[in-house]
Amino acid sequence: MKLFRKLRRNLIALGKVKSYIVYAFGEIVLIVIGILIAWKIGDLNEIRKNNVVEQKVYESLNEELNTNLRILNGLVAEYPRAIVRLENTLNYVGYTEDKITQGTKDTIINVLDKEVSLLDGSINSIINTTKFEFIESADLKDLIIMYPNKIQNFKEQDAKIKLIVANRLKPVLEKYISLVDMLPYTDPKYDSIRKYGAKSDYIGLLSDKEYQNSIIDRMLQTQIQFDHAKSLRSKTKILINTLAEELD
């Protein structure tokens, strides 16, 4: 800078005004170019940082979606079997004592509902924070916005089934069925309770209107949940494929 100032003074002292103007203009151009270069470098650094953040967002979301897809694949296979078990239970209504086999008893007391834990932490984090701004694809943004509602619908239906089991099925089962029937048959240490304990009344259970209604309600709600699972699995696959296109 000292060299530039000395050169400007010399040009003025020698009366070379035109040369000074040309020099001054050139100096201004150099300064502008330097600013533009620094600005461009800053932009490139910001783009690089944004790309890193975007990549991490995509990878986190992709991992969560693939976990959900594995869970949903299992559920889509399981729900039809659960519906068949419930239908079989209804077919036991009217059975006489001699037709109640051990397999029949096992089907009747098998009321447990599978725990389902679909993930939505990453996708909610994207929607509710500035991470959403780093996603460039409009199609991907639309799919991400709609996905949590699908998961919420699934969770609400799952909660409805659990309430049927906890508040309706289990109480009526406990009224008629002894928990002794759930103990291992091959273990001799339970022989005494089996021999002298209270007996189960499967005929009374199958004849109970509340039990019949509870089984029917659970079956209908499971059919609805089966449809939710298939729909959510389809949306999950679409989202995974769209995300894969962005990652490529």
Tag the structure with descriptive keywords:
248 residues; elongated; mainly alpha
Give a summary of the structure in a few sentences.
By secondary structure, the protein is mostly helical. It has helices at residues 2-13, 17-91, 102-109, 121-128, 138-176, 191-196, 202-207, 209-247.
How is this structure best described in words?
78% of the residues lie in helices and 0% in strands. It has eight helices and no strands. The protein has helices at 2-13, 17-91, 102-109, 121-128, 138-176, 191-196, 202-207, 209-247. The chain is elongated and about 110 Å long. The model has no long low-confidence stretch (mean pLDDT 83).
Order of helix and strand elements from N to C terminus: HHHHHHHH
The count of strands amounts to 0
How many helical stretches? 8
End-to-end separation in angstroms reads: 49 Å
Q: What structural class results from the helix and strand content?
A: mainly alpha
Mean pLDDT: 83
What is the 3D shape? elongated
- Please outline the major beta sheet: none
Share of helix, binned: over 70%
Low-confidence stretches: none
